[in-house]
């Protein structure tokens, strides 16, 4: 299973032009949001997750989903 996210989609749907625009206007850390949105984070900061949900007026399930890995062979 792979954890995927819709963070960039949620940001755009809420009227922001980009992750940078979103973080500039909300005061959230660009570095942390970008890493999370690009699936580059090794862990998820719960405080950041709560702030994202509050700021984007969404639930955790709107930001993340699990994708099944295809078995090869």
What does this 3D model show about the protein?
By secondary structure, this protein is mainly α. The chain has a single domain, classed as 434 Repressor (Amino-terminal Domain), CATH 1.10.260.40. The chain is built from 5 helices and 2 strands. It has helices spanning 7-13, 19-26, 30-37, 46-56, 60-63, and strands at residues 2-5, 64-67. It has a two-stranded antiparallel sheet with strand order 1-2. Helix 2 (19-26) runs antiparallel to helix 3 (30-37). The longest helix has 11 residues, at 46-56. The mean pLDDT is 93. It comes from Gracilibacillus thailandensis. InterPro entries: Cro/C1-type_HTH, Lambda_DNA-bd_dom_sf. This is Helix-turn-helix domain-containing protein. Residues 24-63 form the HTH cro/C1-type domain. It holds the Pfam family HTH_26.
Secondary structure elements and pairings:
Blueprint: E1 2-5, H1 7-13, H2 19-26, H3 30-37, H4 46-56, H5 60-63, E2 64-67
Helix content: 40-55%
CATH topology value: 434 Repressor (Amino-terminal Domain)
- CATH architecture, by name, is Orthogonal Bundle
**Can you identify the CATH superfamily?**
lambda repressor-like DNA-binding domains
SSE ordering: EHHHHHE
Whole-number mean pLDDT: 93
Instruction: Quickly count the helices.
Output: 5
Strand arrangement, major sheet: 1-2
How would you describe the shape? elongated
Which CATH class?
Mainly Alpha
The fraction of residues in strands falls at: 5-15%
Uncertain segments are none
């Amino acid at each position: 299973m792979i954890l995927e996210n819709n963070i960039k989609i949620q940001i755009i749907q809420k009227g922001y032009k980009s992750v940078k625009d979103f973080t500039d206007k909300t005061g959230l850390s660009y570095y942390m949001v970008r890493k999370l949105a690009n699936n580059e984070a090794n862990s998820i900061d719960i405080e950041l997750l709560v702030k994202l949900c509050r700021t984007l007026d969404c639930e955790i399930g709107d930001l993340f989903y699990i994708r099944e890995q295809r078995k090869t062979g």
